[in-house]
Design brief:
Blueprint lengths: L10 H9 L1 H10 L5 H15 L4 H6 L2 H9 L8 H18 L5 H4 L5 H9 L6 H14 L7 H5 L16 H16 L11
Helix pairs in contact: 1-2, 1-3, 2-3, 2-6, 5-6, 8-9
Length: 195
């Protein structure tokens, strides 16, 4: 069953995220230092340019060749070189450890802790990104292993604080509002004081 994530404002790009685990994983990887819509639109741009979003085929490409695809205008990220290398690294892990399928990371996983551990082991997936992705899988993709809320931390609650909570224009606006209020209160997405 396709997921319910709504983020890019483009029906085809959102459809790709909800049907293709590799697209979703890459979108989350790109979600830093650029607007969410730009980050999660990246997989659709890549698929259009490559003619596929096959992790095995991406991993088989030369790194510089792949980075050049990422850097084509409009680039897939504000930092296409660094992020292109990171995507290539993730696709290499997918090819080597998950039969080229991101969905195999969460397929048959028994616990939220195990899912978090697998995500955390990926290049570019730090603590917060891994927690948000656990929440995305649970809230929008129907992947809810036992203990997923604990593994997702604050992102497992019902406050509209991240991309995991966006399923339409209304919830997108609520997440933006919440983030703005957090910034004004000098707090991060996990309610920790900053600055």
């Amino acid at each position: 069953m396709p997921g319910t994530l709504y983020i890019t404002g483009d029906k085809a790009a959102d459809g790709l995220l909800n049907e293709d685990g590799t697209a979703l994983l890459i979108g989350m990887l790109l979600d830093q230092q650029v607007p969410m819509e730009w980050a999660f639109g990246g997989p659709a741009k890549l698929k259009e340019r490559l003619g596929h979003l096959d992790a095995n085929r991406i991993a088989a490409m030369g790194v510089e060749e792949f980075v050049a695809v990422c850097a084509e205008k409009p680039s897939i990220h504000r930092f296409p070189g660094a992020m292109g290398k990171r995507i290539h690294q993730v696709c290499t892990v997918l090819a080597d450890e998950y039969e080229g399928q991101a969905a195999n990371i969460w397929k048959g996983v028994d616990t939220g802790a195990e899912l978090y551990r697998r995500l955390r082991a990926l290049p570019g997936y730090g603590e917060e990104k891994s927690k948000i992705f656990v929440a995305i899988l649970a809230k929008t993709q129907g992947v809810r292993p036992e203990g997923w809320r604990e593994a997702a931390g604050k992102f497992g609650d019902d406050i509209p604080r991240s991309v995991a909570d966006i399923d339409g224009p209304e919830s997108l606006a609520k997440v933006r509002e919440w983030k703005k209020a957090q910034k004004a209160a000098k707090r991060d997405k996990q309610d920790n004081a900053v600055g």
